[in-house]
Amino acid sequence: MTQEVQADIGLIGLAVMGQNLVLNMHDHGYKVAVYNRTTARVDEFLAGPAAGTGIIGTHSLEELSVVLQRPRKVMLMVKAGAVVDSFIEQLLPHLEPGDVIIDGGNSLYTDSNRRTRDLAAKGILFVGTGISGGEEGARRGPSIMPGGNPAAWPLVKDIFQNIAARVGGEPCCDWVGEEGAGHFVKMAHNGIEYGDMQLICEAYDFLRRGLGLPAGEIADVFSAWNRGVLESYLMEISSEILGYQDSDGAPLVDRILDAAGQKGTGKWTGINALEMGVPLSLITEAVFARFLSAMKEERERAAAVLRGPEAVFAGEIQQYVQALQDALYAAKIVSYAQGYLLMRAAAREHGWHLNYGGIARMWRGGCIIRSVFLDNIAQAFDADPDLDNLLLADFFADALAQAQAGWRRVVARAAELGLPVPALSSALSFYDGYRSAVLSANLLQAQRDYFGAHTYERVDRPRGEFFHTDWTGRGGKVASSTYNA
Description:
It comes from Desulfurivibrio alkaliphilus (strain DSM 19089 / UNIQEM U267 / AHT2). NADP(+) binds at residues 13-18, 36-38, 78-80, 106. Belongs to the 6-phosphogluconate dehydrogenase family. InterPro entries: 6-PGluconate_DH-like_C_sf, 6PGD_dom2, 6PGDH_C, 6PGDH_Gnd/GntZ, 6PGDH_NADP-bd, 6PGdom_BS, NAD(P)-bd_dom_sf, Pgluconate_DH. The chain is α/β, with parallel strands linked by helices. The protein folds into three domains: 9-175, NAD(P)-binding Rossmann-like Domain (Rossmann fold), CATH 3.40.50.720; 186-435, N-(1-d-carboxylethyl)-l-norvaline Dehydrogenase, domain 2; 438-484, 6-Phosphogluconate Dehydrogenase, domain 3 (Single alpha-helices involved in coiled-coils or other helix-helix interfaces, Up-down Bundle). The chain has 19 helices and ten strands. The protein has helices spanning 16-27, 40-47, 61-67, 82-91, 109-121, 134-140, 153-163, 181-210, 215-225, 233-243, 265-276, 281-294, 296-303, 317-350, 356-362, 373-383, 394-417, 422-434, 441-452; strands at residues 9-12, 32-35, 56-57, 73-76, 100-103, 125-132, 143-148, 166-167, 170-171, 177-178. The strands form two sheets. Strands 3-2-1-4-5-6-7-10 form an eight-stranded mixed sheet, sandwiched between helices. It starts with 8 loop residues before the first strand and ends in a 33-residue tail after the last helix.
């Protein structure tokens, strides 16, 4: 047992993300000790990627705890859920008050809420941190979103901020908030990521099947867009994917099966939006689009039975390319606005103190949704930290006003051509609903009162007063209790 060597931090879980984070920490001068449940992987790592680095391999949690400087800092990069809880229980006998456990996986934020409280009662500090950027980000600099016990932040701040991506000299990492705030913000990030990816895919489909452009030309279109307001990592890689050729010179993308997978964080985002009453329509549609794509065999059967429009595109292609750029930009604004509505609702519910401009700055580098667009979001919240909705910021309100003609044109033309654009169209519906002082929910409330005596409010009386009508003359005066689920 190598007790004489004192490591700055220990990491458990040597899959791709864990290994690359360890190497990143080593590059920045930190002494790291590692452990893996399958201990042979420790030896393989030390003999392979970590050869000659001085990274410390351990073969038990006791050995790991011995080589760590006090207060100990142990980072878990293991499967979310029961595996995290299992490792925490195994670690506790080897830790002492003031030590820090860090969960760097994609954990559900409610688990991080619970772990923060439970470990605090035992004198252990917990950090639940979202990490975005994939394999390359972990190795060269990810976006890191830590939350949990605030007392832990001074102990991990330097390591996290030194290994994170940097934009304009600023680290893409700062303290997010209490308990599960870090993992909630990472979940919101992943939901926005789902939305961004779906919007780009709908633009691709419109250009490919709607306008009839080959993959190589679409790659050029995306490359051009990536030099303007749509500049982003996802736009960049989409252009590269579309330009990539198979061994026979054909576009490889045309040979990839159109059935999407997912790991569940986008679904969590939608579920939490429903539970908190937030209209996260675009991101939820992006999740549903993946579900629909997975029904490949059923869709093939339906294609032989169900008819669509006979229309074919006729018009000026370049005009629609410009309109599509506007549509994509406008819908992207709505997607982020919805994501921020969800974070604001969670902050109210859990008493978190989130820095919304700071979150945008953390996302500018390292992470999957990094884009030039995030600077504008940070500036909007810097100007008004209490901003109710991004759409109300002057910059975004003006951008939507300029883009909406093309946006509406694309959504309408897609419907005429029979092309599904659930994210683009749901974003437009949200925009039109949000800017409407009057909606049709007056009739809906009347329907609820008619069949269930659920009551309604009146426009000619103060908010908070509820009324019931005996619509049929047979219902009486008794009303249902009023509440919002």
